[in-house]
Specification:
single chain; 207 residues; alpha+beta; four-stranded mixed beta sheet; 8 helices; 44% helix; globular
Length: 207
């Protein structure tokens, strides 16, 4: 049985609003008020999810960067993938949180759990994520959610004040403020159409 929702198109505005909904809900919590750099594990905890780092073996399609076990409400991160450390790790957990919020049918999860309590053994497959730069579909949606969660637009607008988005030292300083990688930050800035890279170079220009 699948507890993953059928794919549907979601634009950037809808995904950003869903991420902001989570942050706003956290502000009403006694123990999970969001602070930045954002600890993605605390976001997961607020949503009732556990996060563990473990060794995830490859399957027929190759390496698995992370997976969600919906019935266990568990996010597993593959600790053997070295580039998931530090900022990559935060982004990966936030990405999995995005899948939970956008793509997991929580009502279906509850139905399966009720069936199991009645002795009905229902098999539910995990949601697998791979370390693939060419992301699309639900993977792109989850990654955009992660960017909005880790770098909210209004806070990003504040952090760029007095900084030059075409200068790499300023960009690295902004990335450090949010606890993300420079790649995460560049994707966010380009998605917002605040900067672009000149074709065939590393020179940045304001949009």
């Amino acid at each position: 049985m699948s507890v993953i929702k059928p794919f549907r198109f979601m634009d950037k505005h809808e995904i950003e609003c869903r991420a902001l909904d989570v942050l706003e809900a956290m502000k009403t919590s006694d123990r999970h008020v969001p602070t930045f750099p954002l600890d993605s594990s605390r976001v997961a905890e607020f949503l009732g999810l556990d996060v563990v780092w473990d060794v995830l073996p490859e399957d027929d399609e190759g390496a698995i960067a992370a997976r969600i076990l919906p019935l266990e409400k568990l996010i597993e991160i593959n600790e053997t993938i070295l580039d998931l450390k530090e900022g990559f790790g935060e982004s990966t957990i936030a990405h999995e949180v995005g899948h939970w919020v956008l793509h997991i049918d929580r009502q279906a999860v509850d139905r399966v759990l009720r069936l199991r309590q009645k002795g009905v053994n229902v098999i539910v497959k995990p949601l697998l994520c791979r370390n693939n730069e060419q992301i699309q579909g639900i993977e792109w949606q989850a990654q955009y959610f992660a960017s909005c969660l880790l770098m909210p637009r209004l806070m990003l607008e504040e952090k760029i004040q007095g900084r030059d988005l075409t200068q790499w030292p300023d960009l690295y300083a902004i990335a450090a403020d949010f606890g993300v990688t420079i790649s995460n930050l560049l994707h966010r800035l380009k998605d917002l159409e605040w900067v672009s890279l000149k074709e065939g170079s590393k020179e940045l220009v304001r949009c």
